[in-house]
Every structure is written in structure tokens, then in C-alpha cells.
Amino acid sequence: MKCRVCGTELAEGTLFCPMCGSSVTSSRLRPPEVADSRPSDTSIISDRVAERPPAPAVAGRFPGELELDEDGLPPTQAMTIVSVEDAPPARPTVQRSFTLSFSTGDVVEVSGSGLVGRRPITQPGEHIDQLVVLSDPTRSVSKTHLEFGLEGDELWICDRYSGNGTVAHPLGGVARQCEAGRRYRVTRGTRVEIGDQWFDVS
């Protein structure tokens, strides 16, 4: 009996070859099969550089059509330069005024500075354009609760040391407690709470 792997003569009853250590039941490994030389339809990669697609064919030109340059654009024409003094006057910018819509149903168009409260009173020497009186049976709104005004195109509010304070809720933002005596800019869409009442800025 011979080893199937190395061919060494083996005695009867031998389980392993003393030369190569293989089991007597082992067989020589088969040589690897030659891979299919034909390319797979999913592994074919072209070595050619992608070519630019041909331009679409043009059957003809319409009457009066402009000739295009090499970039496919119509030829540019020289522009006339004029003095800025000869230009037409610019249209004036229309400044949209702010409107305060109160929970009581009152609507006030802001035309300058103003005070809001149950009975707003100006301080000595203070000039205020508008006094907005609110009806508040629960008296959650102070007599002179809040001041507002314009600075350029922006509206600001200021708590006048009211008893229940002022809270501003910007549209899509976080509610802010207004510190008394400090001006806060408010944008359109803001809701301002004054006691149990409120007004929207638009």
C-alpha cells in the first residue's frame, strides 16, 4: 500500500504516512481549474475615453435668425453709456407702517411714539404721539404699561415698569420676558403679552 499523497510504501494497518504525515485516506489535491477566459457580461470595462456626444443636427435656419458664435451664443452688441444724471429718478421706497391689533379688538396704526395702558400718562417733559387706552376689567394691564416707538424702519417696545410685565413672542421664536426700562426691537408677526391682554404686530 502506498501513500496517495507522496507515494511512500506503507505497512498494512498504517493510518498516517511517516514521510508526509497525511492520512492514508487522503488524496492529492487537484490542480486549480483554469478560470473561464471569456469575459463576464458584467465585468467588461471599456478602455476608451468617453466621447462627447455629437451635436444635434440642424436642418435649417429660420428667416431672421441670428448667427451664433463658436460658443453657440448670439453676438454681443455695444452698449450705450449714459451719464447718471440722465438716468430716470428712482422710485421712492414705500415704507409700510406697523399695525398693532389688540385682543380687545382695537387696531392702532403706529405713526410715532406711543404709550399703552388702562390710563396711560406721559412723564413731565415727555413727548408722545399716541396714547392707546385699553379696556381691562381685571386690571392686569397697568395704567401706563408699555411704550412703543419707531427707529428708522424698525418698531421697538419698552415695558414701563408694569405690575405684570411684558412678554414678546416672535413668530417661530422663543418667548422673551422684557426687562423694564429696556427697548426691544419687534418684527412683524410678533405677539406681545401685557398682563391678560395682548397685541399682534403686523
Layout: helices, strands, pairs:
Layout: E1 99-102, E2 107-109, E3 114-117, E4 130-133, E5 146-151, E6 154-159, E7 166-169, E8 176-177, E9 183-186, E10 191-194, E11 197-201
Parallel strand pairs: 3-4
Antiparallel strand pairs: 1-2, 1-11, 3-5, 5-6, 6-9, 7-8, 7-10, 10-11
What does this molecule look like?
It is a single chain. With 202 residues, the protein is mainly β. The chain has no helices and 11 strands. It has a 6-stranded antiparallel beta sheet with strand order 2-1-11-10-7-8, with no helix packed on it. It starts with 98 loop residues before the first strand and ends with a strand.
Task: Put the structure in a nutshell.
The protein has 202 residues and is mainly β. Helix content is 0%, strand content 23%. It is built from no helices and 11 strands.
